[in-house]
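Hi support team,

I submitted a single chain yesterday and got back a structure, but I'm not sure I'm reading the token output correctly. Could someone confirm the output below corresponds to the sequence I sent? I've pasted both exactly as they appear in my results page.

Thanks,
R.
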Amino acid sequence: MTVRVFVGFFGLARALDRTIDSIEQHVFAPLLAENIEIVRAAHLNCPSVVHAPRSGETMVRYTRPDLSRLKLDALTLEEQSDERVADYIARIMKIPQYWEADEDGNMRRNVIHQMNSLKGLYTLLSGMDPQSFNAIILLRPDLRYIDPLPIRKFMAQIDPSVRLSTGKMHPLGQALRRGLRGPVDLITPDWHQWNGLNDRIAIATPQAAAAYLNRIDLLDDYAATHTHFQSEHLLKFAIERAGLKNAGTWVRANRVRTTGEEEGRDTDRKQPWLSAISRPIRIGLQI
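Hi R., thanks for writing in. Yes, this is the structure output for that exact sequence:
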């Protein structure tokens, strides 16, 4: 049986020239090594400038990158403008930003643009028979992926019925990959969660991908039960609302800004000694 995986990119393709090598080596290569059929798609925002002073990007001119190395099967490029998402912006401005001042609303507007891109990616996915995929991987193209995707572990967690052509293990090994919680609907990083769910990387079932990609539609419901906004909190809200089960992954990725600066403050945090020692083993065995 052919194993099919959808790999979707969303948001801004800023600094793709600095992240594409890691995408090829740590995302595509592990899938191809298992003879997995990859369907690649992207919905990308195209602003005239990138304005995110918090990350050191102040009115930086945006230049569309060369996307050829992503080898996309489907692509939507959307002009980024506040007018296109004015209704969503009006909704999110009613909820103060969690933990940080956002007096001009720029942080929340940028989140809306990213979530609108997620919804655009769902439009592409929904036209490709989502149920035909064994797993759906959702990624940002402006991240440098530090660890290779442990696809054997992911498949054991998302679709245990899959039998990959390589990397077969004793049932005990597969049980270790699957984890104590058994099969799950969604896998997100176990770092930078902010009491929610990290929204930079996701591996999902088709049902979980729909909840993940369309969470912008839950802003009103979220506002009715939360006093402040945080993107990680909204993702957790959407997954819990859908009754889905989430598991964490140790896969790391750093944001790379339009300026070329790589932000490693989240992944460079000091880890518990046991996690630091066991990481090479977990990477090698995909457990």
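A quick pointer for reading it: Residues 91 and 219 are 7 Å apart (CA to CA). Let us know if anything else looks off.

Best,
Support desk
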